């Protein structure tokens, strides 16, 4: 990889994390009784609006190719959004975000279970130490619905990441994201 590609990737990662942090802060300042589906609907609409400039990357001839898996992934994502809102509304921001970082650990475990990938001794050590760190953060005697919701959000994110491998290879990332948010917007609107 060239230095330009690495720098671009780092910049996109920083921007993505900053946008996620802004979303988390908005959730923290919501009223305790704010409707969760309203937040999910607004997040979907805003994301779709941000994806509109990338419309050229959508393959209109095979727009709904892999539609069943897209539908499943979209609704797993919706469950993750709902869990994230519950976790962020009830837990301290730092605690919730620390638990959300269980997702990469879960991706490693799910890739072994679903695709038969092998873990090295180093990756197994990373999984064990990562889960130990999450237990330290959550203090197992203090496990609540909010902590379980944070783990549910991480599990949803991990499952979505693993299922990307099964989506049509020729679809761009913008296409996959657009379908994901397009498919969950109606159920968010209904609720």
Task: Map the helices and strands.
Layout: H1 3-29, H2 36-51, H3 67-90, H4 93-100, H5 103-115, H6 121-138, H7 145-163, H8 173-190
Helix pairs in contact: 1-3, 2-3, 2-8, 3-7, 3-8, 4-7, 5-6, 5-7
Question: Concise description?
Answer:
This protein is an all-alpha fold. The chain is built from eight helices and no strands. This is EamA domain-containing protein.
Describe the structure.
The chain has eight helices and no strands. It is mainly alpha-helical and about 190 residues long. The chain has one domain. The radius of gyration is 18 Å and the shape is globular. Pfam families: EamA. One of its GO terms (cellular component) is membrane. Keywords: Membrane, Transmembrane, Transmembrane helix. This is EamA domain-containing protein.
